[in-house]
Design a protein that fits this description.
The complex is a heterotrimer of chains A (326), B (271) and C (330). By secondary structure, chain B is mainly alpha-helical. Chain B contains 13 helices and no strands. In chain C, α4 packs across α5 and α6 runs parallel beside α7. The longest helix of chain C has 18 residues. The chains are: A alpha/beta (326), B mainly alpha (271), C alpha/beta (330). Chains in contact: A-C, B-C.
């Protein structure tokens, strides 16, 4: 049982209901995350990566709706869970960190109470025990002088400190899966590295699996075991992360990797034009025919315009949704 | 539900406006000429809403009264909006002592009931439509002022306003071209609701004998003269009251409906 | 003030921007040194990258250059004119000298105006070209930033983020300024669009010979675009030099930490260089070198006295660090 994946997302589709129309925001997304594995989901804004995260956490709301597929957490289909059972699961066995810690924390509660609440809620502890555990939790996320900090309100803390508090809350009950949605995007570069490392160290120690959602391919590729690249609602490539930078398979991933200005590149290649991905991401309203990427693809073939490519096995145990590998 | 507010209020107001503008076409009886022979008649085929104590046709008086109510409501609210926007826009844009002065003035205006203030002005100016317009048009601008100022303060942080500054545009251009068009939505809502309260204020002042001079028909004055006949001839009070109620309600509903249409956030929630 | 024949479009000398803020406890005010003793210069056709964490004062410099905040000390000269005395009172002159491209393209364009109004308005305001040719100028500029002529009659909401940023660049360039300040021009854009905008800025810089001040926290972007780089920490420039010097031989521990903080899977992990903690508040800067509480190579002189002065490393490379002037006794 223990080598069964902790999370199995199979053929998940999510749609946006606008009046009588159902616009496909996420289509046929499948991936699994093993116990203790760090899995990255990368894509641009609006590609559907955050929607997937919200759905896995059972937080999806109208006008968004799951229109197909299933999500199994530890073998249980979470779409079938009652909202009370889902609530019990969330925060206890699945937890989440958001991009903007200021809006995710309650401004009227001290951080100690907010962390302690998790122990009261999910572990049935008394207020006093919970406070002691809250101090421990703050120590664990390396907040200096934790015993004093628990009396602070979120606005008294810096962005990096708030994100540490979020991590303390998320990991309070030793979850089996942590969903981190752009956890460092709102932070300064120098603090980003520290926060990411903290999350990874803490999760490794607890055997917590991580679903890391980000637009930063560099970050994800460095810290994750496997990476899935999403484009316009679909996973277009899924690889062990070591391969995604050195040998990107899907033309979109290739374009992304080539277009990133990377350190040291100007020294070796000079100040050349960065490779561009021409055009723009198709909007949800546009009719979907063929491959999502075909209008921007440099290697377009005839059937790309008419047929949606399936997942195809590629070398190194990867999957790509592209006819080039058919 | 929200959409129906808008369409119902629009339909009611269109009817009121058409009836008021083309009042002579819809009425056969002179609204001001009384005929004591018919004094205090209940509603009948000849006098749809009955007649008052001087034998004047209430239906005609309500239609012609609508002209006065709408005219006063629109003019007063235009004056109020103009004053409020000018003060609010400049206060928000320039800040400093001017802002503090305008803010204090606004607070002062808000702390005195509009009708009481207008009443004081009217006793100085004397009764009549012109003094009514002046008294009401100068006293109820505090809300438009507050809203404009708040809008300016939030729009000022938008980069396009900063961009206009760095492009060398004058303060006048920035206020009237960059800021004003983008705050029109909330202002229209406030102004629409203000028309309703202006009509109400006109009725109150006329009720007190300070507004429209008899024999010109005004809903407020009609209600006032109907007081004594309430028990014997209730229709003299009921119909002008109903007209007032429906018109003011329609303007308020229109304001509500416009808010939902003009406010992008409300729109997003609606879909 | 500025020597005649100075090739610099922008020259900042010992700039100070201080704010008086109320004390946290008790009465009275104290100075918040948002920018302290900053000297920079940019020549035509040159791109200066200004790097630092949020709150380090890099955006304040931009505002000071545009005359939007008062200067407490030092001087800024733009195209040979002094900002504090000449330009601050002459917005029209300032507009022809320096323009700005903002981070968020969504709030940068007036939603009620057409693109023709947005781009043509400044032409009429500054009386650039003949009235009947202004439309051609607008279309020309749209083509220059990679948009079609049809764009002129549309309104901002019809464009995507990347296209809007192109429009913002067009608006900045249409008054033919000598300096364009870009405040994080790509960080609000989608990853696949960033390269388009970076290429466009580089192309236009070469074509028009404008000076660029690139404010960014993304060293990858800065390295690619900048000819010279200045690294700021808590209101001061701690290292300055040509891009090659900064990236091949970073000399200030803060610069080294910034560079090693960038996740790059193609590079071995450089965690040893990583600093810890967060930047202290500019309200309460540490004694001595402001960076010493986070520095991995801190030694005695760093903790007290004055902030270290610049040490010249090569002709075009200097840094403020005690390590460079006096070796620690090991």
């Amino acid at each position: 049982m223990s080598d069964a994946p902790i999370l199995d997302v199979h053929d998940l589709s999510i749609s946006l209901n606008v009046g009588s129309r159902m616009l496909p925001a996420v289509r046929n997304v499948s991936f699994t995350i093993g116990r203790g594995e760090v899995f990255g989901l990368v894509g641009e804004s609006g590609c559907g990566k955050s929607l997937c995260a919200l759905t896995i956490a059972g937080l999806i709301r109208a006008p968004m709706q799951v229109s197909g597929g299933e999500i199994r957490f530890d073998g249980v289909d979470i779409n079938r869970l009652s909202s009370a059972n889902m609530r019990r699961l969330r925060g206890d066995r699945i937890s989440m960190i958001f991009q903007e810690p200021m809006t995710a924390l309650n401004p009227l509660m001290t951080v100690g109470d907010q962390i302690g609440e998790m122990f009261v809620l999910h572990r049935g502890m008394s207020g006093n025990d919970a406070r002691l555990r809250a101090i421990e939790a703050l120590d664990m996320v390396q907040v200096p002088s934790a015993a004093r900090r628990i009396r602070d309100y979120p606005h008294q803390l810096s962005g990096g400190m708030r994100q540490r508090i979020m991590i303390a809350i998320a990991l309070a009950c030793d979850p089996e899966l942590l969903i981190a949605d752009e956890p460092t995007t709102a932070l300064d570069v120098t603090i980003q590295a520290e926060i990411v490392e903290l999350v990874l160290d803490l999760c490794k120690a607890r055997g917590t699996a991580v679903l890391m959602i980000s637009h930063d391919l560099g970050l994800v590729a460095r810290i994750c075991n496997r990476v899935a690249v999403m484009y316009s609602g679909q996973i277009v490539e899924q690889r062990p992360s070591s391969a995604i930078f050195t040998d990107p398979a899907h033309p979109y991933t290739r374009g992304l990797v080539a277009s990133l200005p990377r350190l040291g590149r100007r020294l070796t290649e000079g100040q050349t034009r960065l490779a561009e991905i021409p055009g723009v991401v198709p909007s949800l309203n546009e009719p979907r025919v063929g491959c999502q990427f075909h209008a921007r693809c440099p290697e377009i073939m005839d059937r790309c315009r008419t047929t949606v490519p399936d997942n195809t096995q590629i070398a190194n145990g990867g999957l790509a949704r592209c006819f080039l590998y058919d | 539900m929200l959409r129906s507010n808008l369409s119902v209020s629009l339909a009611v107001l269109a009817t009121v406006i058409i009836l008021a503008v083309f009042a002579p076409l819809f009425t056969t009886n002179d609204p001001t000429a009384g005929n004591l022979m018919y004094a205090g008649e209940p509603p009948s085929l000849q006098f749809w809403f009955g007649t008052d104590e001087q034998g004047r046709d209430i239906f005609s008086r309500i239609l012609f009264g609508a002209r006065i109510s709408l005219m006063i409501g629109l003019t007063v609210q235009m004056m109020n909006t103009l004053i409020g926007v000018c003060l609010g826009l400049t206060a928000g844009y320039f800040g400093g002592w001017w802002d503090e002065f305008v803010q204090s003035l606004t607070n002062l205006m808000l702390s005195i009931p509009t009708v009481v203030f207008a009443l004081a002005l009217m006793t100085v100016l004397g009764p009549g439509i012109l003094s009514l317009l002046i008294a009401l048009g100068m006293t109820d601008w505090a809300y438009s002022c507050r809203i404009s100022r708040a809008q300016v303060l939030s729009l000022k942080t938008q980069n396009y306003v900063q961009a206009a500054q760095t492009l060398g545009y004058s303060g006048r251009h920035i206020m009237f071209r960059e800021l004003l068009p983008n705050m029109a939505g909330p202002l229209i809502v406030v102004a629409t609701m203000g028309i309703g309260s202006a009509i109400m204020a006109e009725a109150s002042l006329s009720f007190l004998g300070l507004g429209v001079v008899p024999p010109a028909p005004s809903w407020g004055a009609m209600l006032s003269s109907a007081r004594e006949q309430m028990m014997v001839a209730p229709w003299i009070a009921i119909f002008p009251g109903l007209a007032l109620f429906v018109t003011v309600l329609a303007f308020n509903l229109l304001g509500d409906g416009l808010r939902d249409v003009l406010d992008p956030q409300g729109k997003a929630n609606g879909t | 003030m500025t020597p005649p024949g100075d090739p610099a479009v922008l020259r900042i000398d010992n700039l100070q921007v201080h704010y008086a803020v109320p004390k946290a406890k008790g009465f009275g005010k104290r100075a918040l040194k948002a920018v302290d003793d900053v000297s920079l210069s940019i020549r035509a056709g040159e791109c200066l990258g200004l790097v630092g964490e949020s709150g380090c004062g890099k955006s304040t410099i931009a505002q000071a250059v545009l005359g939007l905040v008062p200067i407490s000390g030092g001087s800024i000269s733009l195209g040979g004119h002094d900002v504090a005395t000449t330009i601050r009172n002459n917005r029209m002159m300032q507009a022809r000298l320096a323009q700005m491209v903002f981070q968020d393209p969504f709030s940068s364009l007036n939603p009620r105006q057409t693109i023709r109004q947005i781009l043509g308005g400044p032409l009429a305001l500054h009386d650039i070209g003949e009235a009947d040719q202004r439309n051609d100028r607008v279309i020309d500029m749209l083509r220059k930033v990679g948009l079609k002529a049809e764009a002129a009659d549309r309104r901002p909401h019809e464009f995507s983020g990347g296209q809007r940023q192109r429009l913002c660049i067009a608006r900045a360039l249409i008054v033919e300024p000598k300096l364009v300040i870009c405040d994080e021009p790509v960080s609000a854009l989608d990853v696949s669009i960033r390269a388009q905008i970076i290429n466009l800025l580089l192309e236009l810089k070469g074509e028009l010979g404008i000076a660029l001040l690139m404010i960014s926290h993304d060293l990858g972007v800065v390295e690619h675009m900048s000819d010279r780089i200045a690294v700021m920490y808590l209101g001061r420039i701690v290292e300055e030099g040509g891009w090659r010097e900064i990236f091949t031989a970073p000399s200030h521990p803060y610069t080294q930490a910034l560079i090693s903080a960038i996740p790059d899977p193609m590079k071995p992990d450089t965690a040893s260089r990583r600093m810890t903690g967060e930047a202290p508040s500019a309200l309460d800067p540490p004694q001595g070198c402001a960076f010493h509480p986070r520095c991995t190579t801190v030694f005695a002189p760093c903790r007290s006295g004055q902030a270290p002065a610049f040490t010249r490393i090569t002709a075009d490379h200097q840094a403020r660090c005690h390590l460079l002037s006096e070796r620690p006794s090991l």
